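Q: Joint fold for the lines below.
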Amino acid sequence: MALDLTHIRSLFPILDQEVNGKPLVYFDNAATTQKPQSVIDALSQYYQTDNSNIHRGAHTLADRATRTYEKTREMVREFIGAKEQEEIIFTKGTTEGINLVAATFGRKYIQAGDEIIISTMEHHSNIVPWQMLCEEKGAHLKIIPVSDAGEIDLEDFKKLLSPTTKLVSVVHVSNALGTINPVKSIIDLAHAQGAKVLLDGAQSTSHLEVDVQALDCDFMAFSAHKIYGPTGMGVLYGKREILESMPPYQGGGEMIKEVTFEKTTYNEIPFKFEAGTPNIGDVIAFQKALEFVKEIGKANIKAHEDDLLAYAVEKLSHIKGFVPIGTAKEKVSVVSFLIKDMHPFDVGMMLDASGIAVRTGHHCTQPLMNRFGIEGTVRASFAVYNTKEEIDRLAESVHKIAKIKNK
Amino acid sequence: MTSINQVQEEIKDEFEILGSDRESTIYYIMELGNGLPPFPEEARTDDHIIKGCQSKVWLEAKEEEGKIVFLADSNTDITKGLISLLIRILSGRTPDEILQAELYFIEQIGMGNIIGSQRSNGLASMIKQMKLYALAFQSKLNA
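A: Joint structure:
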């Protein structure tokens, strides 16, 4: 089904503007997607009519805010195919979700000599928490290599797996390259060795059908702002029995059952992990983003984005000096590239001058950039509202820029 | 030799001709970078690096008859263009001139809008480093 892009674009007010005298082309969707008017309105509406602190409120507003807030939990459960609402923990974002697992699961279950496996293509937020944990516990971090195409070879992963592996934490879709990793196989292999698996779903949840029960992952962390939702809000999914066995994350209000100076008992999941007043407004506004995605349908979004990716690769490949970085067979709509003899930062600034927003640099994946022997790339990432005409604009500008050094 | 402020006025005129089109201004800055004299490889060391988030600058200064000559290079062309502007203004001046220089052209051109905040910070670091060199040479010359 071809999407009605005119209609879809009309839902995103930010897209209708000029940047540097040219119509904006927004290709930085892997960093954050734009928000439909419905999300913006819901946020504003919440503060206009419903604002109140949730849970334990004795008044109507508090009750209304609580019910609306908890409705997001049910919608997220459905969105990722979790079994129960209680397995959905609201966080600030993917980074906090991973840190939560490191701080709680890690504190309880990782001991000296244990091993944690990550991959070369992890975002820093899925590297540093484990480095910190390993240092504290005397555990070891093992790294799955990445091929020249930007793929993980399962044989390499198998070699690292052993009974001392306690946790495998891998990115579902690479933010820097767009590679879709074979996570189902990774999860099954890890489970066969008794290891738990955390998926970094920051880049996958907006593009792919994700079903945590079918995947059988133990945890998955993702952010609302990459799925057309607000910033400052994310989700950590965890299997009930594991979440229940984990110690709390932060101490404070909301996460307790009873506090005395002698002893505090903790609340049930998910509240055990949600200390303090949460980001109520953004959690509520996220519903509209989920509705937006549901209305169009993930399969339709994927088909459109695949089409854009193929079109972009075809157009850009013909440009002299264009060097793609990451050519995996299975990819989401991300094109990471270099222009021969040019610094990505310069390319990005010149694209910006022609109204095209891309990201340049190491994309918080310095070990991956080191693997490719580069400092960074230019990354164009497409979302549901992007068009082929916009890719034409990109190709035209890249062509013009590349000509400076590639005559 | 033209004064520091005369050179700044020249640069302002050049940018004025480019007008408000950011694209052609950036291309122009990149072109300026190509005019930098080659940087001596033996000076490409860590103590000559001014490190920004995405770009690196190597800056070397030497004293010739009481005046400071700057040599610089960068791994990005736009940064090279920016430092070439600074060199055009400050190289071949006495330490006193460099220390007293007020580089008003940056604000008057509206460089912040052209190059963005990351690179503006980098530009400020370069100026600071050039002034530090001048300060060091000044105390050496006065010793």
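Q: Anything notable?
A: The longest strand of chain A covers residues 165-171. Residues 60-80 of chain A form the longest helix (21 residues).
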